Give the backbone structure.
Amino acid sequence: MSELENMKELTEGAAEQEQEKVENGVHNYSSADEYVWPTDPKVLEKLEWFQDQKLALMMHWGPYSQLGIVESWALSDADAEWSRGGVDWEVTGKEFKKQYFDLNKTFNPIRFEPEKWADIAQEAGVKYLIFTTKHHDGFCMWDTKYSDYKLTAPDCPFHTHKYADAVGYLFEAFRRRGIGIAAYFSKADWHVDSYWAEGFPRGDYMYRGPSYVPAEHPEKWEEFVTFTQNQIKELASEYGKLDIMWFDAGWVCEESDQDIRLGEVIEEIRKWQPGMLCADRTIGGLYENYITPEQCVPEKPLNVPWESNITLGTSFSFKYEDTYKSPREVVLLLIDIVAKGGNLAINVGPQPDGRLPEGAVRSLKGMGAWLKVNGEAIYATRVCAPYKQGTIAFTQNAENIYAIETFESADMPVGERVVIPCSADVEKITLLETGEELEYVKKEAGYEVTVPAYEGEEAPIARAFCLKKA
């Protein structure tokens, strides 16, 4: 068998494994039945912190934002059919990839103001940030020592700007507001020549994995492992406290013959960042500390730590004239997720000029306005059976049960009597919005609560009741 034939057989098998983990750019998620609880007390403590937070702001931002198409994926010829739909000029795959990789030469987001981003996130009720330090295309949003394909390189016009080391300024701005930090990092790198290397039989045709078989070229693969480990340690040692390292590109793993030995790096980092969580998506085991459903919500509680990654608009990266979920839609999404024991990471793709889209900001602030009044029923809560029943979702903490009555549309009727299907003994029931103690009668179906007449012209997004445990 020739080298080309052997490579074809091996890479086709790897591609099938990749497809199982990621389809059309969307990751599947690990089974909760296979979740491995950490044994490190500090990691367990951090998981409790994580489950208290409930709401993250995820951000995909880079040179690709200039095109308004999906981030990175159009570089993979094997993914061209679904990912290049937004490319509206006639070029070959080879020419397209060159033009894409040259986007760094025109990326100049001079309206980037990290303090404004952090202010908006704080007003939205966000508790931690997940920021793409590097996506699969390999472009680095920090001043890395290990690559010249970065925001601070001389061939990127933004490199002279005071915020050129975007990751550093962004992380500090969010930390100053008490918002946690998760560094998103793609384990694949389609720009570095130790992953997509020239001179191998595949030629110009690229798919998600390396352009060679790692087992047949161990020295080349070790070069990539060293590069990747160095970048991960750089982020964790030079950019302040990280609460989470969030790893994408689930096909880069031992079972796909792409072992970057992530565990040894995380254990080293935890010597100076004790308890830092690791989200090694779709991999399972000790370094997938929480599960990450993407663009979906599990039907039932998973009973392990998890976080749904869902776009506020229709795309993870910036899309011109995108449409965004309304405050009602995103709050109801958050309630559904929290009632099932998860966190919501709501994704916003910043504009290529460095601003956040106005439509996205309106939705974020609308969500924050609801959380400012009702956040007690969301933050630092855990699941509470029956989780959801009809229009009512449940959460709880040590002292209280929270019943959240949801209104899917503005024209739904708002009754002055609500039956809360709860069998627990309670001392009193209050309406969070006003703090008013409400009259109630315990019946077979639950607590029938009398609520003051609602005076709004439209139904509220949701109203939360606090049931003080007896």
Remarks:
- The CA atoms of residues 414 and 459 lie 6 Å apart.
- The longest strand covers residues 462-469.
